[in-house]
Each structure stands twice: as structure tokens, then as C-alpha cells.
Write a structure and sequence with these properties.
- By secondary structure, the protein is mostly helical.
- 57% of the residues lie in helices and 0% in strands.
- It has six helices and no strands.
Length: 141
């Protein structure tokens, strides 16, 4: 059985892999800059201390030093919304600041996006429309 025939398994798309790696590197650079801003240039503590400070700023919610290491080394290619919220609370920035910039969509990219949306249920499309409205009107957390 080929990987694309197994339920829940998608073949690896080289473009998606490259994009995820770029996003991870962008996040590493962004977090490193925020750490320097928070602690001062040249005085950023160890990853264990950083993880403890992140936990403390999030009411003790779990945040491992391994995750801090992966983020700073550029290998955390799929951070969760919870991770971004916790980092945002720690740094005192909006969670949206921890999302990589999205390149402009034009022509074929817009058609491809529309094609991906074409198979979604009406409730999912409504959720996407609502999300777009939130972004357009700046109601992000």
C-alpha cells in the first residue's frame, strides 16, 4: 500500500516541508529577539530558566525546556496555538506576532486556496469567513 493510500497518511510535499522549516527558522529568530529584548542583550538565561519563567507567567502551565530548545534551534516546525499563546503572555505581545508572515497570494495561489476550500462543509466555510472578519477588523487577541 502506498503512503497516500493509507488512512490519515499524506505523502510528504517538499514545498510544505520547506515552508515548515522556514516558519521554524522565522520563529527561532523572532523568539531570540524577544528574549534579548526581555532579558537584555547578552544576558539571556539558560533554556531551563526560560522555560520556568514561561511557566510562571502562565500560572504554572506546562512548558518544557525541550520545547524552548526546539524553538530556539529552529526545529519546532509545528507549534500549537497554546504554545503561541503562552509565549505571547510571557513576552507581552499579541499571539498573532508569533505567526510567520504570509506571502501575498495571487493568481494560481488564490485558485488553489479556493479549490482546497471547495470540499469543506458549510459550517467550516462559515468559520473561515468569521476568522477572516476577525482579522480584517483587528479583533485578534
Amino acid at each position: 500500500m502506498r503512503p497516500d493510500e493509507r488512512p490519515g497518511i499524506r505523502p510528504t510535499d517538499p514545498q510544505e516541508t520547506a515552508s515548515a522549516e522556514q516558519d521554524a527558522i522565522w520563529l527561532a529568530t523572532t523568539v531570540a529577539g524577544l528574549l534579548e529584548r526581555k532579558y537584555g542583550r547578552g544576558t539571556v538565561p539558560s533554556i531551563r530558566v526560560i522555560a520556568g519563567d514561561i511557566r510562571a507567567s502562565n500560572n504554572g502551565q506546562r512548558f518544557s525546556h525541550t520545547l524552548v530548545h526546539n524553538i530556539l534551534s529552529g526545529t519546532a516546525s509545528n507549534t500549537t496555538q497554546t504554545t503561541r499563546r503562552m509565549l505571547a503572555a510571557f513576552f507581552g505581545v499579541p499571539a498573532a506576532d508569533l505567526l510567520p508572515p504570509v506571502p501575498e497570494l495571487a493568481g494560481d495561489a488564490v485558485a488553489l486556496l479556493a479549490m482546497r476550500f471547495s470540499g469543506l462543509a458549510p459550517a467550516a466555510l462559515a468559520a473561515i469567513e468569521e476568522a477572516i472578519e476577525i482579522v480584517k477588523h483587528g479583533r485578534m487577541q
